[in-house]
Amino acid sequence: MQYHPVPLEATLDSLPPLWSEDLIPEIQTILEAYPSMVFVLDDDPTGAQTVHNASFLTQWSLDVLLSERYQPEEATFLLINTRAKTEEQAVKINTDLGMEFSKLSRQLKIPISVISRSDSTLRGHFPAEVDALAEGMGNSHDGIIFIPFFIQGGRYTIDNVQYVSDGSMLAPVAQTPFAKDSAFGYESSNLCDWIEEKTQGKVSSEEVIAISIDEIRIGGPDVVEEKLKQVNRNDICIINSADMRDLDVVALAI
Q1: Cβ–Cβ under 8 Å, residues 154 and 226
Q2: From the centroid of its chain, how far is CA 186?
Q3: Is residue 249 within 8 Å of residue 224, measured between CB atoms?
Q4: pLDDT (tens digit per residue) in 118-153
Q5: Which strand ranges, in their side-by-side order, compose the sheet holding 144-146?
Q6: What letter would DSSP give residue 114?
Q7: Whose CB has fewer CB within 10 Å in the chain, the N or C terminal residue?
Q8: What is the pLDDT of residue 48?
Q9: Closest by alpha carbon to 238, among 184, 132, 159, 176?
Q10: Mean pLDDT on 18-44
Q11: Interatomic CA distance for residues 94 and 99, integer angstroms
Q12: Beta strands in 118-251 (DSSP E)
């Protein structure tokens, strides 16, 4: 299906109102009650520039990971820089890291939360990296939650379509120069179609689960939670988002 640029302000105004309740206090209460170590695997150096209160590592031996247990930061970014590597190299790094995280969790006897961070304009070794990470960690995941929304860079996910903003218009991502990348080029702006494209048909667009902005803003955390319960081991669930509060709703549901 062909998508066209749309006006940013009018498109955002056409969406349902944001979920009215501030969910951050409840999320913080849950995190304090069920603590875990949080690691973000960053495939490119730019990711850590948009966060704060996080430590930053460029090496990840078990001893280094163990030392993070005693750091005050709420999360640890690992610069694995796999976007600049071949898929084979990226798979090995993620598999090895997954195994290290499994050892870390067993040794410390606490949960380990791992997030694979890639590009909001859809460049990167997907799904190879997350599949390798899951395999290294023993395939204990319940599915893949895919969130390419990135407000700081003007990247929005609306009606399953990934858009890039220039300040006044939203361009479907496949119509931007990012989609012409020599290593990670693609043709689809609709994320369901993009996943089918990236998996070479192993996951069809019809199999992709999507949580809409209507479900997030009208249904709230309870509706999103019920939708997430439909996600099974090999499922991919995309999250539509146009504001950080949309992700607050999803975070509480998770």
Answers
A1: no
A2: 19
A3: yes
A4: 999 999 999 999 999 999 999 878 899 999 999 999
A5: 144-146, 236-239, 209-211
A6: E
A7: N
A8: 67
A9: 159
A10: 95
A11: 9
A12: 144-146, 155-158, 161-165, 169-172, 209-211, 236-239
Residues in a beta bridge with 171: 164
How many angstroms from the chain centroid is the CA of residue 81? 16
Handedness of CA 159, 203, 147, 175 (dihedral sign): negative
The C-alpha atoms of residue 136 and residue 32 are separated, in whole angstroms, by 27
Structure tokens of 200? Answer: 């070479």
Which residues are bridge partners to 228 per DSSP?
Answer: none
Residue 103: the pLDDT is 94
Domains of the chain: 1-20+143-254 (3.40.50.10840), 36-141 (no CATH)
Task: Look up residue 94 and give its two tokens.
Answer: 């993620």
Kindly report which listed range (44-53, 66-75, 134-143, 151-160) carries the lowest average pLDDT score.
44-53
Q: DSSP letter string over 155-186?
A: EEEETTEEEEE-SSEEEEGGGSGGGG-TTT--
